[in-house]
């Protein structure tokens, strides 16, 4: 069987205009978001329905063509980029972009895999509901990609990862069969949880084509604040106090080091440092109240009074309006942009048990500083769920490319060894893709890898579903 025969069959199945082979047309699909990986493909396939996806998978099986599923192509680990052989085909889910149903009584929305995350949020809001998944790429990432990587974001503390927000899936299997699991049930004890098997699998077991997602009531008020603290240990104590006082109203608790905010101010002059004096750590916290803004602000005032009295917080400022709240969140969201402006850096998306975060930062910072004096640590992330973006910027005045070439591998090993000692994960919310596959195989137990391989072989015996990702 030849590629030419495969492409002819694909054109017959979905239309010639939806089988892209011209380099100008395929280029946007072949390079990952960070421009770390660029692959080649025999074609980019653009089906419009789950049945068309199923037909293409059957053709791929017949012609032994590997498929690389892709959504918005906003992934950060190269999971949706083909290899360099030119033998694989990218299958883009962007045309599967229908909102099929909104059920306010069941608090669910059923959407196809190519629907943009921001569109899901908008449709939920129009129905008087909240879809709480929120992350920087929400204007371009797709629900299929969010599910494939089990995306996290800023609301995990209250609402959970994407897995916790999904009740049912529709999936095209590696054999081209369509499984309709769009049941929308909170309780279903009828066997293996196939839904959770496909979520987070990065398209290596099958292709997600639609999902039933949980909705929540819209909060009556959101109140945002910044709190300055002396250390990550103080931030953890403050988190415990906040959870005790606010309970389920706490929806965001983001940690940002002093250097993170200084970096934002350096490259985005309109974003001022929020306090008169420097502080080692700053926490951005948000409460979502179902009662009223007055109730939320009263709760905030009691929380801050207690935190200041107990010496946990050195200073604090509460947003007075939506504009100021947005400005607080902009500080947090511009940290990755400021890093990019500062130059290439070594990124880590890690998770450790929440109680270990302070010790992890202290020990790992010290080890990296000893190895490379003068490095600058850009540490920020979702403290409330144990996920840190633990990034390393080159010393001032050092060429960033040369720094990465020399130090990326040694620093990665330092960080990942420390994560492993603290019983953490080397990928918290970005997935493994092709970026971290070797490290994952190194740190996982042999039995864990064997079980993963058994699942992969059982569901995709021909290894045609996104090969070379997640698992070797």
Automatic annotation (TrEMBL):
Sample GO molecular function, one term: FAD binding
Keyword Transmembrane attached: no
Matches recorded under Pfam families: FAD-oxidase_C, FAD_binding_4
Assigned EC number: 1.-.-.-
Cofactor requirements of the protein: FAD
Sequence ranges assigned to domain FAD-binding PCMH-type in this UniProt record: 37-218
InterPro entries: FAD-bd_oxidored_4_C (IPR004113), FAD-bd_PCMH (IPR016166), FAD-bd_PCMH-like_sf (IPR036318), FAD-bd_PCMH_sub1 (IPR016167), FAD-bd_PCMH_sub2 (IPR016169), FAD-linked_Oxase-like_C (IPR016164), FAD-oxidored/transferase_4 (IPR051264), Oxid_FAD_bind_N (IPR006094)
UniProt entry keywords in alphabetical sequence: FAD, Flavoprotein, Oxidoreductase
Keyword DNA damage: no
Gene Ontology BP annotations: respiratory electron transport chain
UniProt enzyme class: oxidoreductase
Family to which this protein belongs: Belongs to the FAD-binding oxidoreductase/transferase type 4 family.
Protein name: Putative FAD-linked oxidoreductase
């Amino acid at each position: 069987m030849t590629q030419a025969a495969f492409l002819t069959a694909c054109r017959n199945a979905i239309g010639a205009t939806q089988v892209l082979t011209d380099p100008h047309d395929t280029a946007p699909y072949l390079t990952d978001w960070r421009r770390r990986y660029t692959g080649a493909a025999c074609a980019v396939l653009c089906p419009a329905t789950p049945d068309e996806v199923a037909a293409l998978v059957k053709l791929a099986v017949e012609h032994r063509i590997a498929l690389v599923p892709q959504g918005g192509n906003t992934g950060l680990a190269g999971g949706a980029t083909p290899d360099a052989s030119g033998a694989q085909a990218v299958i883009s889910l962007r045309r599967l972009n229908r909102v099929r149903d909104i059920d306010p009584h069941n608090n669910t929305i059923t959407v196809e895999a190519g629907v943009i995350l921001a569109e899901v949020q908008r449709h939920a809001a129009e129905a008087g509901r909240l879809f709480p998944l929120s992350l920087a790429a929400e204007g371009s990432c797709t629900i299929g990609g969010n599910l494939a990587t089990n995306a996290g974001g800023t609301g995990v503390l209250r609402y959970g990862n994407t897995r916790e927000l999904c009740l049912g899936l529709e999936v095209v299997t590696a054999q081209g069969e369509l499984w309709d699991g769009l049941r929308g049930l909170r309780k279903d004890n009828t066997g293996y949880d196939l839904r959770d098997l496909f979520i987070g699998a990065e398209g290596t077991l099958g292709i997600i084509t639609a999902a039933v997602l949980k909705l929540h009531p819209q909060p009556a008020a959101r109140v945002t604040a910044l709190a300055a603290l002396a250390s990550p240990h103080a931030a953890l104590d403050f988190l415990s106090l906040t959870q005790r006082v606010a309970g389920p109203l706490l929806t965001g608790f983001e940690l940002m080091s002093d250097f993170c905010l200084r970096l934002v101010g350096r490259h985005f002059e309109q974003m001022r440092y929020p306090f008169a004096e420097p502080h080692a750590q700053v926490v951005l916290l948000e409460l979502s109240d179902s009662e009223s803004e007055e109730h939320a602000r009263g709760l905030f005032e009691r929380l801050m009074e207690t935190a200041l009295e107990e010496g946990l917080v050195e200073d604090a400022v509460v947003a007075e309006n939506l504009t100021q709240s947005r400005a607080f969140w902009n500080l947090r969201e511009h940290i990755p942009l400021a890093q990019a402006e500062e130059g290439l850096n070594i990124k880590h998306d890690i998770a450790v048990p929440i109680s270990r975060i302070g010790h992890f930062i202290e020990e790992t910072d010290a080890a990296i500083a000893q190895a490379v004096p003068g490095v600058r640590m850009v540490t920020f992330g979702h403290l409330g769920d144990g996920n840190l973006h633990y990034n390393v910027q080159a010393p001032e005045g050092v060429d960033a490319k040369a720094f990465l070439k020399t130090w990326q591998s040694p620093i990665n090993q330092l960080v990942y060894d420390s994560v492993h000692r603290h019983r953490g994960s080397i990928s918290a919310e970005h997935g493994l893709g092709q970026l971290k596959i070797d490290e994952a195989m190194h740190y996982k137990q042999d039995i864990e890898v064997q079980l993963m391989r058994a699942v992969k072989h059982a569901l995709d015996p021909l290894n045609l579903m996104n090969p070379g990702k997640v698992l070797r």
